[in-house]
Design a protein that fits this description.
heterodimer; A: about 270 residues; alpha/beta; six-stranded mixed sheet; two-stranded antiparallel ribbon; about 40% helix; B: about 425 residues; alpha+beta; 7 helices; about 35% strand; T_Tr_GTP-bd_dom (chain B); GTP-binding protein (chain B); GTP-binding (chain B); Transl_elong_EF1A/Init_IF2_C (chain B); Transl_B-barrel_sf (chain B)
């Protein structure tokens, strides 16, 4: 294994094992995208095939059909304790990408649904597959990122992390966001997917000259022109690309600081 | 009681680091000397960032914005928190780490710097080494970051003058000597124009060295210098110990001993989904099947003939990052590899501003924000540990008050006291 990938794998596995030791009721957030699927794969590696955390899917109901199929297949195969959460109240009231701004829709169907999921499950930590190279704001995150009761991210006062040593305590009523994939880049994920044979949804591979580089809600994702039909093709394409990975994600474009606003409210 | 002051920082140099093809480099230095801009220039001129990230023109400060992603950072033109980006050359992957320069953001600076094994000290050729330059150099030395280059920046604003460069470079070199950092090179650059950053510059005809990027290739991090084998038990799954090799190399058949227990033999080294391994290297997180009963999470395993020191009286050095500081007598926790160690700050031997020279006199008063302090910590019970120069991963810790408050980062200089082995 190339040592850079081995390094990333080691560091992530260490965080996962530390989380199991330090928190009483952690959960993992799985969106079926390549990053959180890789994270799930690394959990299985860390605990020798076991996934010792409940796996939460925050379902906006607007995801691609292929993502639901992928979820159901692999959660069976891997024996996951899968918990699907939807903001049913908002959905019943008609919330959707055309009913409101993207910021409002993401907040209602993702952030608020996540809030409910964590409260219902009583989780003191939640593992997320976000990466630092996705966005300038995500690059400012810590591996252990405490959130208060109101879910806010206090980016002005993030706790120290020295070497691989981190404070695991959160204030009463808060929870810890844990980001074990922060140092991975898009290309690292694809090279690791190729090396390990990690399954990912077909949406990532070219169909009629298009593929998705980043997946989420069907209504808010645009494909990129591509003939990359295999993981190897994707590795080569991503190595060459000078385009941003999230260029096809509508919620990032609405205004320049959209991601920061979303994250301040507790978005993943 | 006074103990001799030990030389700063990490273990002895060795030929190889944990992985030769990744180098983590922190860019440190005074506010507005151009850390983010220089880093942005390196990323841009090597094609390491996607086009959408340069959303503000270079002449309007867009280079710094490649890493300063927060609205507040962009509005007020400063780096609030650390961030990193990757640059790849033919032979190496560099993780370039930006840190804030403001004195009050020392926590974020130290967080970023602790992720690095090498550093570029960024110095404005006109202002030379300033307060935070000195402080950051002290922090690097304490952390054992020993592969260091100095970039003398803004040469365009000094008319590319050789004299400016040499004066600044000499001053930084003298400071490095005093603090105990070895500078590999000093390189004149302009991040705004890009001169001598990734390619040689015709505007610096008097400079005979190589551009900044090429000098990074000479930075060889200190390896673990023959550090003894140390293994941390993280967890147990079905009789298998989930373990991390903190230092040294673990081989099947090795004898390992935990405090107060009989020696065990390493029977199998495993990774899920991979064939069994003969050995595991520093940093590897593995499954370990041992003879005898599995050991509890947090246990430190070591070879019977090179065991750690054991004691309850620890001499440590701490960089205080708590705004309201701490004082002698306070309860504390040393969070480190393995289990947390609890105790109390039995004595503040001396402490001083991290940007200054160490004083000769003892000073037992309260330790303030951004000071370096030499402390004696009395642990509640004796624990195994290593001097940072023997085994860096085990000789480092985060000091907390036992709840949520982080007091600082620390290194272990000496372990003494009751031995109940």
């Amino acid at each position: 294994m190339p040592s850079a990938l081995r390094d990333l794998e080691n560091d992530t596995v260490q965080v996962l094992r530390e989380v199991r030791g330090r928190f009483t009721n952690p959960a993992l957030l799985w969106s079926m995208g390549k990053d959180s699927t890789t994270l799930l794969w690394l959990v299985r590696k860390a605990f020798f095939g076991d996934v010792p955390f409940p796996v939460i899917h925050i379902d906006t109901s607007y995801k691609f059909r292929q993502m639901y199929e992928f979820r159901d297949r692999w959660s069976r195969e891997w024996g996951l304790d899968l918990r699907v959460h939807r903001n049913e109240k908002a959905l019943a009231a008609g919330m959707g990408p055309t009913a409101a701004t993207k910021l409002e829709c993401c907040t209602a169907l993702k952030t608020n649904a996540l809030q409910e999921a964590l409260e219902t499950g009583g989780h003191d930590a939640v593992l997320l597959g976000i990466r630092g190279d996705e966005h300038g704001v995500r690059a400012k995150e810590r591996v252990f990122s405490p959130r208060d009761r109101s879910f806010g991210w206090d980016y002005r006062n993030q706790p120290a992390e020295f070497w691989d040593l981190r404070q695991a305590a959160v204030d009463e009523g808060g929870h810890m966001r844990v980001h074990p994939m922060l140092s991975w880049r898009e290309i690292d994920i694809w090279e690791y997917v190729r090396q390990e044979g990690i399954p990912v949804p077909d949406l990532y591979f070219a169909n009629d000259g298009n593929r998705y580089r980043s997946i989420g809600c069907e209504c808010c994702c645009s494909p990129v022109r591509s003939d990359a039909g295999t993981v190897t093709d994707v590795v080569i394409e991503v190595r060459r690309s000078r385009e941003g990975e999230r260029a096809g994600r509508a919620q990032d474009k609405e205004d320049a600081a959209a991601m920061e606003k979303l994250r301040a409210l507790g978005y993943m | 009681m006074t103990t001799p002051v030990l030389p700063e920082g990490g273990p002895t140099p060795a030929a190889t680091a944990r992985d030769a093809d990744t180098l983590r480099v922190a860019f440190v230095g005074e506010v507005d000397h151009g850390k983010s801009t220089l880093l942005g220039r390196l990323l841009l001129d090597t094609g390491s960032v996607t086009t959408d990230r340069l959303d503000v023109p270079v002449e309007d400060g867009g280079l710094a914005f490649l890493l300063d992603g927060l609205t507040e950072e962009r509005a007020d033109l400063f780096t609030l928190d650390t961030a990193s980006a990757v640059l790849e050359t033919g032979s190496r992957r560099y993780v370039l780490i930006d840190v804030p320069g403001h004195a009050e953001l020392l926590v974020n600076m130290a967080t970023g710097a602790s992720r690095a094994e090498a550093a570029v000290i960024v110095v404005d050729c006109r202002e030379r080494a300033a307060e935070q330059t000195r402080r950051h150099m002290r922090v690097l030395a304490m952390m054992g970051v020993t592969a260091v280059v100095c970039a003398i920046t803004k040469m365009d604003l000094a008319g590319w003058a050789e004299a400016e460069f040499h004066t600044a470079a000499r001053q930084v070199a003298a400071l490095a000597d005093e603090i105990g950092l070895a500078l590999v090179a000093a390189v004149p650059v302009s991040a705004m124009t890009g001169d001598n950053v990734t390619a040689p510059s015709t505007r610096l005809p008097w400079y005979t060295g190589r551009p900044l990027l090429d000098t990074l290739a000479d930075l060889t991090p200190w390896g673990d210098g023959g550090a003894p084998l140390r293994v941390e038990a993280q967890d147990v799954v079905e009789g298998r110990v989930l373990a991390r090799v903190l230092s040294g190399e673990l081989r099947v058949g090795d004898r390992l001993v935990a405090p107060g227990e009989d020696a065990r033999t390493a029977l199998r080294i495993e990774r899920f989904g991979e064939p069994p391994q003969e050995s595991a290297a520093t940093g590897d997180n593995i499954g370990l099947v041992l003879s005898g009963p599995p050991c509890a999470p947090g246990t430190l395993l070591a070879p019977p003939d090179r065991r750690p020191l054991r004691g309850d009286r620890w001499r440590v050095r701490v960089l205080c990052t708590a705004e309201d500081g701490f004082a002698e007598g306070a309860r504390c926790t040393l969070r480190r590899a393995g289990a947390d160690l609890t105790g109390r700050i039995a004595r503040v031997e001396r402490h001083w501003d991290s940007a200054r020279r160490a004083p000769d006199a003892t000073d037992r008063g309260p330790v303030r924000f951004s000071e370096v302090a030499e402390l004696t910590v009395l642990l509640d019970r004796p624990a195994d540990g290593d001097d940072v120069r023997v085994c860096a991963p085990l000789g480092r810790f985060m000091l907390t008050d036992g709840s949520v408050r982080i007091l600082g980062l620390g290194i272990v200089d000496q372990i003494a006291g009751e031995d109940r082995r």
